[in-house]
Design a protein that fits this description.
The protein is of the alpha+beta class. Strands 1-2 form a two-stranded antiparallel sheet. A hairpin with a 2-residue loop joins strand 1 and strand 2. It is flat, with a radius of gyration of 19 Å. The N and C termini lie far apart (55 Å).
């Protein structure tokens, strides 16, 4: 094994890297009984960190 293969990444470091670049989650869930769709859920989510360059969309701007 090389040094890169043995390198361990802490969960906090992984989360920091993902939030720095942003993460997009998409998915579909369908609850079906006897070929009849009962519930359908579509998920589209963007998760990103907020800083001075990218302000929060929920704060009021002055």
């Amino acid at each position: 094994m090389t040094a890169v293969e043995r390198r361990e990444v802490a969960l906090v470091d992984l989360l920091d890297r993902l939030l720095a670049g942003g993460v997009v989650l998409t998915g579909d869930i369908t609850l079906r009984i006897a070929d009849v769709d009962l519930v359908r859920i579509d998920l589209n989510a963007l998760i990103s960190s907020v800083n001075q360059q990218v302000p929060s969309p929920f704060e009021e701007r002055v």
